[in-house]
Every structure is written in structure tokens, then in C-alpha cells.
Design goal:
The complex is a heterodimer of chains A (about 425) and B (about 230). Chain A has about 425 residues and is of the alpha+beta class. Chain A has helices spanning about 1-10, 15-45, 60-70, 80-90, 115-120, 150-155, 200-210, 225-230, 250-260, 270-315, 315-325, 330-370, 380-410, and strands at about 55-60, 80, 95-105, 110-115, 125, 130, 130-135, 145, 160, 165, 180-185, 195-200, 210-215, 215, 235-240, 240-245, 265-270. Chain B has a domain at about 10-100 and about 165-225: Rossmann fold (3-Layer(aba) Sandwich), CATH 3.40.50.300. Chain B has helices spanning about 50-55, 80-90, 105-115, 120-135, 150-160, 180-195; strands at about 10-20, 25-35, 40, 65-70, 70-75, 90-95, 170, 200-205, 215-220, 225. The chains are: A alpha+beta (about 425), B alpha/beta (about 230).
Chain lengths: ~425, ~230
């Protein structure tokens, strides 16, 4: 009977209840959506690089090194000489290494010079290897492998010729026009900065800069692609390199050894630690978003209580009838609580549906435009915590009109002063 | 009914009530109503009718004196015990708007047995009989209460009040919204059903012409003392 009363009473006031339901649905969907996005973004972020034990670059802060080597943000302060690189990777504990050479770009996308080890050893997410969606890894010096986003956004196909620009701006004034590259392969999407990278060989980086000096083409000295191929293309330096160890136990020993390397100032960082530090900085924004959505939820809940309080006046007669028929004042209190919980529960269900629908519709756009891979599975432990928290909060707020009903029932007696 | 017939439906001694703000008080020296005996309470508005009804229903507690309904001391019992007592032994019918608009006629009727904690199946069959005897046919039972005429609504209120087999039926001007034909029909059917259930009726009204239906009467004007508000 209590349930029936609550249900029919809500139905009787369906106009205002509908609006309350709508605002609650939107705010709960917002809250859950932001919570879901930040968890997913964090996952996606921290899974940018995996399986790599150390990243080594010229001496700098660990965030700077992480940003330019993994996220292609910012620039290296200095390079590592090729002989140093060769010497370090001979260390008995090192199982593999990936050299990285940065500094050029193609229409706003960073160009990364590397070698075949990149495709063999680079891992992201849960130790997922890079997969070539089309073509193959580079063979010749002037071959390139494109990240998924680069290929889609710029509409490149296998075999197409592209030119690289010197420097990393979207608009560059100095082009490597004379040495075009051929698209040899296109990688499958990863949801990491790999998607936004143009990969070439280390030799190619060396080749396009042979006739350059101090960041500009040398006047009067131009080498054609064919001429360059005949020359020694061993790189003189690289920007950074990633290292995989035989045993993780050696990580700290090797890190110390590299940091104390006498011939050249180097820094070795643990990507996991650096990623966590970076995420902590980003989490400020994320927490702010969460706070805002919490406030939106609170506003919606307060709105519901306001309409409920307003409706208490017109429901005095109803309450008096229930009292006269023998209802205890706490029965009225429970009735109001039940109504609030029903509306909240209904809103949570519709919010979940709304969220799923929008995620489903936006999934592709998010992946394509932002490199965010958001799963549709919104049910996890924190979601349940949120749900319980929202229910608790609404019950807490509902005590206000509940107590009002209780006290009015005691004070008014059987008659209603209209 | 397990109650012994000797216990009066209602008994009050030196009942005194006043508001904290003072200025007005209600004093009832003595009143005893046997089961099945009906009382007509006459009084203009502001004469303390509502206060008396609140006292008799156990909504408010007297300042002093004794009040027994069906032998239970209402002046001593806790508020929640009085609520339970009201659910079981007292039926109330208001002037108008007696029903919860969004519940069906049948659900409105069943409300009283729900609060009295009576078995649902038993209450259901009894509710149907009561409604039928009050001239409310089956086709009305599942209609929303606000679709009924005022006369029909008042009869549903009677059915609801009588459903838990109360000792006491308190009616607060239930005929004021009815025309004279409806009013007489209502009075007859209400008293007939009350008699059939062995229920005492306390009927409050300012309409002198209704005194003919009652065994005894009480004039509020003589009870209330002090300044008249209103």
C-alpha cells in the first residue's frame, strides 16, 4: 500500500515529477559520464607506453623527457651522441632498445626517426604490440609508416608521396622538398600518440639533414635523394631511446649507472613513475570537472526537494486524510522518503541509459578526434559507490520535507487550514 | 468484536483543554456514550468543534481530565499508541474532500484497514460489501476518487471509516456539501451502517434540522469559555 501510494502520488504530480526526473537524469549522467571519462582517460593515458623499463635522454627533468619522447610534446634540450647510445645498449642487462630521433614534422604531425626495433618491441596498453593495418614497416631509407590518425586525417594511402618539414610547427617555412617519402605502411589505431606520428628510419633523418647546417639548408650545396643514398647514413646523434631489460630487478641499478655516465650528461627515467607524476598534475583539471558535476547534481537534488517542499502545501489535505485514517506521522515521513528514492532511482537508471547511448554515439568521434578510447562498460566499483552516494544524499535531503510533513501532521491535526 | 458490551464507546471526565497562548478553553465535565448510542454536537464555527474532534481522535491530548475510547485511556497513551488506536477504533469523515484523489475508490476504502493492520483479503471482501450497501456499484470501484460526485465521495468516506469495524465514527459536517435530498439519504445510510456495525456516531454540525436523527445532543456554546476567537 505504501508503495502504491508513493507511486500513484508521483503519477498524480507527473508534471513536476517529470521535470525533476529530467534534471536529475541529466546531472547524474553528467556526473557518471565525467567519472567514466576520467577513469578511461587515465587508463588510456597511463597505458600510452608499457613494457618499457627506462627512457633515456639528454639530462633534463623527467617530465620533459617523458613529454617529448612519449607524447611528442615540447622539445629535447640536447641530443645523445650515437657512440654513447651504442655503448650503453651493450650493457648485459639490456634486452632491447628503441632509438628515437625527433625534430621534424609533417603538416603538424611529428616525425619520429627510429628503426625496426620500434615495431618489434614497442608496447602500449596491456603489452599490446603495434600492428600494421596496411603495408609493411620501412624498408628503404625514404619509406615512412604513418600513425592511424595521420593517415585518416590527411587521407593518405599506401604508395603516396609526402614531404617532411623542418621543425615542429603546423606551418613550417623550411621544407625538405627535395627528398619526398613514400608511404610504406599504416599502423592500426592505438589510442596513443603513436597514432599522430609519422615514422621514418634513422637513416632518413640523417639523409634529409646532410645538406643542412644549423637548421637551414646550406647555400650552394644540394644533394639529391640518389646522391644521399650513396653516402654514409649512420646517425650522428639521436634524441632519446627506450630500453627493455632482461630483468626488472636491474632497473634501478641501470638507471643510476646511466645517470652517472661520465662522458655525457644523461637522464634515465622510469616511464611508469613519470606518467603517474604527470597524471597527478592533470588530475587537478579532472578533479575540478568532477567537482562541477557534483555541484550540478547537488543543484538538481535541491531542485527536487524544492518542488517537493512546494508540493507539501497542496498535499496537506492528502496528509490529513492519511492521518485521520490512522497513519502514524512517521508513515508520512517514510512516504516522502520513498517518493524521493523512487524518483532518484528512476533517474539513475535513465541516466545510465542516456550515458550509454551518448557513449555509443560518440565513441567513434572520441577515438578519431581525440585519440580517446572509451569503453561502453560504465559499471564498475566506483559507479556503484556513486549510485549509493547519490541515493544516500537524496534520502538525506528528503528528510527536510519528510520532517516538515511529520511536524505538520502533528500540529495541524485532522483539519486543514486552507 | 471481543469487547465486553459494558465498556462504553466513549467516556470522558472533567476534560479540559486550552492553547498555550491562553484566552480560550474547552471544558467538558462529563460524557458517557454506550456502544451504538449516537451524539449530535451542535456549534457554530469557532466554538471549539475542531478542538473537540482532535481530542476525541487522539490527535491532541487534553490538558487535564480523563478520556476513554473503548475503555482505552487516550489521555495517558503515547502519540503513536493513539495513532494505532485511531486506526483501529475510530473512523473519521470530513466535511468534504475525504478521499485521496489519485487512489481508486476501492483503494481509498482499503486505506483504513491497511493502517489498522487487518488482513487484506478479509478487508477486500468486506469493503466490497460495504460499498455495495452504501449504493456504490462495482463499476465505480476502480475509478479515481475525484471522478465521483460529492455525494458518492462522502459515501466512500463512510465505507472507509466503517471498514475496520470501529467503535466510534466521527463525522465533521459531512453533509454540508450536499443538497437536502442527498443529505437525508446520506444520514439514513450512514446511521443504518453504523447501527449494523454496532458503532457509535459523533456527528458535528450547525444544522439544527439534523438533530432528529440522534439520541443525545451537545451544545458547544455551553462548553467553551472565555474569549471567542475568529
Amino acid at each position: 500500500m505504501l508503495m502504491k501510494l508513493a507511486r500513484l502520488s508521483l503519477w498524480n504530480r507527473r508534471g513536476t515529477v517529470l521535470m525533476t526526473w529530467l534534471s536529475l537524469t541529466i546531472s547524474i549522467a553528467l556526473l557518471l559520464g565525467i567519472d567514466h571519462l576520467r577513469t578511461e582517460a587515465k587508463n588510456s593515458f597511463t597505458s600510452t607506453v608499457s613494457g618499457t623499463d627506462l627512457i633515456v635522454g639528454a639530462r633534463s627533468g623527467q617530465l620533459n623527457l617523458l613529454l617529448y619522447s612519449v607524447f611528442r610534446i615540447g622539445n629535447a634540450t640536447a641530443n645523445i651522441s650515437w657512440p654513447t647510445y651504442q655503448r650503453i645498449i651493450k650493457h648485459p642487462q639490456i634486452s632491447w632498445s628503441i632509438p628515437i630521433s625527433l625534430g621534424d614534422s609533417h603538416r603538424g604531425y611529428r616525425v619520429m626517426g627510429t628503426n625496426g626495433d620500434y615495431f618489434n618491441h614497442y608496447r602500449y596498453a596491456n603489452s599490446q604490440p603495434l600492428v600494421l593495418a596496411q603495408g609493411k614497416a620501412f624498408d628503404g631509407v625514404f619509406d615512412t609508416v604513418l600513425g592511424a590518425e595521420v593517415a585518416v586525417k590527411l587521407g593518405y594511402k599506401l604508395g603516396e608521396q609526402i614531404e617532411l618539414s623542418h621543425g615542429v610547427g603546423a606551418v613550417s617555412f623550411s621544407q625538405h622538398k627535395d627528398k619526398p617519402f613514400t608511404v610504406a605502411g599504416i599502423l592500426a589505431p592505438t589510442g596513443t600518440p603513436v597514432d599522430q606520428t609519422v615514422h621514418v628510419s634513422l637513416e632518413a633523418i640523417e639523409a634529409i639533414h646532410l645538406d643542412w647546417q644549423q637548421g637551414a639548408p646550406m647555400p650552394g650545396r644540394q644533394l639529391s635523394s640518389d646522391q644521399v643514398l650513396a653516402m654514409d647514413l649512420t646517425p650522428k646523434s639521436i634524441t632519446a631511446f627506450m630500453v627493455g631489460l632482461k630483468s626488472r630487478m636491474a632497473t634501478f641499478t641501470l638507471q643510476r649507472q646511466i645517470n652517472e655516465y661520465k662522458n655525457e650528461p644523461l637522464s634515465a627515467i622510469l616511464p611508469g613513475v613519470a606518467l603517474a607524476e604527470l597524471w597527478q598534475m592533470l588530475s587537478m583539471v579532472e578533479n575540478l570537472l568532477l567537482l562541477i558535476s557534483l555541484l550540478v547534481l547537488l543543484a538538481a537534488l535541491v531542485g527536487m526537494i524544492t518542488t517537493l517542499l512546494a508540493s507539501m502545501k497542496e498535499r496537506q489535505r492528502e496528509m490529513a486524510i492519511l492521518r485521520a485514517t490512522g497513519a502514524h506521522p512517521w508513515y508520512l515521513f517514510v512516504l516522502i522518503q520513498l517518493e524521493v528514492l523512487l524518483v532518484t532511482l528512476l533517474s539513475m537508471l535513465s541516466a545510465a541509459a542516456l550515458l550509454l547511448l551518448s557513449l555509443y554515439l560518440l565513441q567513434d568521434t572520441l577515438a578519431a578526434d581525440f585519440g580517446l578510447f572509451i569503453s561502453l562498460n560504465i559499471v564498475k566499483l566506483t559507479t556503484l559507490y556513486w549510485a549509493a552516494g547519490i541515493l544516500l544524499l537524496s534520502a538525506l535531503l528528503a528528510t527536510l520535507p519528510g520532517i516538515l510533513a511529520y511536524r505538520k501532521a502533528l500540529a495541524d491535526g485532522l483539519t486543514v487550514r486552507l | 468484536m471481543t469487547d465486553k458490551p459494558k465498556i462504553p464507546a466513549i467516556e470522558l471526565k472533567q476534560l479540559l483543554f486550552y492553547y498555550q497562548s491562553g484566552g480560550w478553553q474547552l471544558h467538558l465535565p462529563q460524557l458517557v456514550l454506550a456502544r451504538g448510542q449516537h451524539l449530535f454536537v451542535r456549534g457554530a464555527s469557532g466554538s471549539g468543534k475542531t478542538t473537540l474532534l482532535n481530542l476525541l481522535c487522539g490527535i491532541t491530548r487534553p490538558a487535564s481530565g480523563e478520556l476513554y475510547v473503548n475503555g482505552k485511556p487516550l489521555h495517558i497513551l503515547s502519540s503513536s499508541a493513539r495513532d494505532t488506536l485511531r486506526a483501529k477504533y475510530i473512523g473519521v469523515v470530513f466535511q468534504q474532500l475525504n478521499l485521496i484523489p489519485y487512489l481508486s475508490v476501492l483503494d481509498n476504502t482499503l486505506l483504513s484497514s491497511h493502517f489498522a493492520g487487518q488482513s487484506k483479503t478479509e478487508a477486500l471482501s468486506r469493503a466490497k460489501t460495504l460499498l455495495q450497501r452504501l449504493g456504490l456499484q462495482q463499476d465505480l470501484w476502480h475509478k479515481a476518487a475525484n471522478q465521483l460526485s460529492v455525494g458518492q465521495q462522502q459515501r466512500v468516506a463512510i465505507a472507509r471509516a466503517l471498514l475496520p469495524k470501529p467503535t466510534l465514527l466521527i463525522a465533521d459536517e459531512p453533509t454540508s456539501a450536499l443538497d437536502s435530498d442527498n443529505r437525508d439519504a446520506f444520514m439514513r445510510v450512514m446511521l443504518a451502517e453504523a447501527d449494523a456495525n454496532g458503532c457509535t456516531v459523533i456527528f458535528v454540525s450547525h444544522d439544527q434540522s439534523l438533530t432528529q436523527y440522534f439520541h443525545t445532543q451537545l451544545d458547544m456554546q455551553q462548553l467553551a469559555k472565555g474569549v471567542q476567537p475568529c
